Amino acid sequence: MTEAAQTQSINYATVTWDQLHCDARLLAAELMRKHRSFRGIVAITRGGLIPAAILGRELGCRLIESISVVSYEGEEGTQQEPKLLKTAAAAGDGEGFLIVDDLVDSGVTARYVREMLPKAKFACLYAKPNGRAYTDHFVTEFPQDTWVLFPWDMAPQFVPPLSRSHKA
Ligand SMILES: O=P(O)(O)OC[C@H]1O[C@H](OP(=O)(O)OP(=O)(O)O)[C@H](O)[C@@H]1O
Ligand SMILES: Nc1nc2[nH]cnc2c(=O)[nH]1
Ligand SMILES: [Mg+2]
């Protein structure tokens, strides 16, 4: 959990499927401009899987490896020591590979994965100030005290009209 979450002063930012898709395409365009091509992509599961699929499609990259690192327990959970559940065996030392995640927050996950794949580049959709030094590319920065709600974290819900709560 972020420092802000622990002190109960957390804000939320919601990201819709459309916004996420749009941001992933913006990230792909930047990667196309700055790099010739990638041999493969390493998605950090689970949050990096959907961004990696979109980037793979846009960049024409079909070799998608994954690495599984757990850093948080529960939704908006407590941050703990990263636990490695699966290595990115196909990526070697990361040469020619792009590591993809949904966001960097404290940067702990990104730093851990970069140490395992030192020659890879790193890209994510969103970054918070404490984590941005650990990513080579990102699209949008969010404040450190903001918890980003991804489309897979949310569901549309009925909201009663205002007039109902104003009945005498
Ligand atoms: O910069 P950090 O503070 O390390 O936080 C960022 C990481 O936290 C989330 O993953 P999480 O560990 O919650 O697992 P998940 O991707 O399976 O949801 C997110 O997807 C990043 O991987
Ligand atoms: N969904 C989500 N997961 C995170 N893991 C670390 N920070 C965040 C965040 O802001 N949102
Ligand atoms: Mg993750």
Automatic annotation (TrEMBL):
<feature type="binding site">
    <location>
        <position position="105"/>
    </location>
    <ligand>
        <name>xanthine</name>
    </ligand>
</feature>
<protein>
    <recommendedName>
        <fullName>Xanthine-guanine phosphoribosyltransferase</fullName>
        <ecNumber>2.4.2.22</ecNumber>
    </recommendedName>
</protein>
<keyword id="KW-0660">Purine salvage</keyword>
<comment type="pathway">
    <text>Purine metabolism; XMP biosynthesis via salvage pathway; XMP from xanthine: step 1/1.</text>
</comment>
<feature type="binding site">
    <location>
        <position position="80"/>
    </location>
    <ligand>
        <name>5-phospho-alpha-D-ribose 1-diphosphate</name>
    </ligand>
</feature>
<keyword id="KW-0328">Glycosyltransferase</keyword>
<feature type="binding site">
    <location>
        <position position="148"/>
    </location>
    <ligand>
        <name>xanthine</name>
    </ligand>
</feature>
<keyword id="KW-0479">Metal-binding</keyword>
<feature type="binding site">
    <location>
        <position position="102"/>
    </location>
    <ligand>
        <name>Mg(2+)</name>
    </ligand>
</feature>
<feature type="binding site">
    <location>
        <begin position="147"/>
        <end position="148"/>
    </location>
    <ligand>
        <name>GMP</name>
    </ligand>
</feature>
<dbReference type="InterPro" id="IPR023747">
    <property type="entry name" value="Xanthine_Guanine_PRibTrfase"/>
</dbReference>
<keyword id="KW-0808">Transferase</keyword>
<comment type="pathway">
    <text>Purine metabolism; GMP biosynthesis via salvage pathway; GMP from guanine: step 1/1.</text>
</comment>
<keyword id="KW-0460">Magnesium</keyword>
<feature type="binding site">
    <location>
        <position position="80"/>
    </location>
    <ligand>
        <name>GMP</name>
    </ligand>
</feature>
<keyword id="KW-0472">Membrane</keyword>
<feature type="binding site">
    <location>
        <position position="148"/>
    </location>
    <ligand>
        <name>guanine</name>
    </ligand>
</feature>
<feature type="binding site">
    <location>
        <position position="105"/>
    </location>
    <ligand>
        <name>guanine</name>
    </ligand>
</feature>
<dbReference type="GO" id="GO:0000310">
    <property type="term" value="F:xanthine phosphoribosyltransferase activity"/>
</dbReference>
<feature type="binding site">
    <location>
        <begin position="46"/>
        <end position="47"/>
    </location>
    <ligand>
        <name>5-phospho-alpha-D-ribose 1-diphosphate</name>
    </ligand>
</feature>
<feature type="domain" description="Phosphoribosyltransferase">
    <location>
        <begin position="17"/>
        <end position="157"/>
    </location>
</feature>
<comment type="similarity">
    <text>Belongs to the purine/pyrimidine phosphoribosyltransferase family. XGPT subfamily.</text>
</comment>
<comment type="function">
    <text>Purine salvage pathway enzyme that catalyzes the transfer of the ribosyl-5-phosphate group from 5-phospho-alpha-D-ribose 1-diphosphate (PRPP) to the N9 position of the 6-oxopurines guanine and xanthine to form the corresponding ribonucleotides GMP (guanosine 5'-monophosphate) and XMP (xanthosine 5'-monophosphate), with the release of PPi. To a lesser extent, also acts on hypoxanthine.</text>
</comment>
<dbReference type="Pfam" id="PF00156">
    <property type="entry name" value="Pribosyltran"/>
</dbReference>
<dbReference type="InterPro" id="IPR029057">
    <property type="entry name" value="PRTase-like"/>
</dbReference>
<comment type="subunit">
    <text>Homotetramer.</text>
</comment>
<feature type="binding site">
    <location>
        <begin position="105"/>
        <end position="109"/>
    </location>
    <ligand>
        <name>GMP</name>
    </ligand>
</feature>
<keyword id="KW-1003">Cell membrane</keyword>
<dbReference type="InterPro" id="IPR000836">
    <property type="entry name" value="PRTase_dom"/>
</dbReference>
<feature type="binding site">
    <location>
        <begin position="101"/>
        <end position="109"/>
    </location>
    <ligand>
        <name>5-phospho-alpha-D-ribose 1-diphosphate</name>
    </ligand>
</feature>
